[in-house]
């Protein structure tokens, strides 16, 4: 059985269900991959919280557009399973918070902390990331 074709005008007739179509939406976040980008963020602004450290830098004009984010956990966080779990939690927190509070043209690096990133409730991670972004983007006088 083949799936139904989508209607030409975009509207389904009564009683017909539209086809299940997977629509890929371009993600709002781009992941940092190059070591140089991580090092540049490490030299810029930092804000520590109880569950993570957030490093941020504004990219010079003409570089990549959008919000870019990287994730890292040192071996101090734990074994490979623990580090991967910490990065997954940071990735999900960034996916929920950065599109709203992150700024276009900025790079962010979220660094996991020993015991805290894995053990803290997820709501605490979200609250800490929100706090760190507000502090990083606050106007300095």
UniProtKB/TrEMBL annotation:
Its EC number is 3.1.26.5. It catalyses: Endonucleolytic cleavage of RNA, removing 5'-extranucleotides from tRNA precursor. One of its GO terms (cellular component) is ribonuclease P complex. PROSITE patterns: RIBONUCLEASE_P. Keywords: Endonuclease, Hydrolase, Nuclease, RNA-binding, tRNA processing. The keyword Hydrolase applies. Residues 1-20 are annotated as: Disordered. GO terms for biological process: tRNA 5'-leader removal. It is an enzyme of class 3 (hydrolase). It comes from the Bacteria. One of its GO terms (molecular function) is 3'-tRNA processing endoribonuclease activity. InterPro entries: Ribosomal_Su5_D2-typ_SF, Ribsml_uS5_D2-typ_fold_subgr, RNase_P, RNase_P_CS. The keyword Hydrolase applies. RNaseP catalyzes the removal of the 5'-leader sequence from pre-tRNA to produce the mature 5'-terminus. It can also cleave other RNA substrates such as 4.5S RNA. The protein component plays an auxiliary but essential role in vivo by binding to the 5'-leader sequence and broadening the substrate specificity of the ribozyme. Belongs to the RnpA family. Consists of a catalytic RNA component (M1 or rnpB) and a protein subunit. This is Ribonuclease P protein component. It comes from Jhaorihella thermophila.
């Amino acid at each position: 059985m083949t799936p139904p074709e989508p209607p030409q005008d975009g509207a389904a007739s009564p009683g017909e269900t539209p086809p299940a179509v997977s629509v890929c939406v371009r993600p709002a976040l781009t992941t940092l991959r190059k070591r140089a980008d991580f090092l540049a963020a490490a030299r810029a602004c930092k804000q520590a919280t109880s569950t993570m450290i957030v490093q941020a830098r504004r990219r010079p004009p003409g570089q990549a557009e959008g919000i870019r984010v990287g994730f890292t956990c040192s071996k101090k966080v734990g074994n490979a399973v623990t580090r991967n779990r910490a990065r997954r939690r940071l990735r999900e927190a960034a996916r929920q918070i950065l599109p709203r509070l992150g700024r276009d043209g900025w790079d962010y690096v979220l660094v996991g902390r020993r015991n805290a990133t894995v053990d803290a409730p997820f709501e605490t991670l979200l609250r800490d990331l929100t706090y760190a972004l507000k502090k990083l983007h606050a106007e300095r006088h």
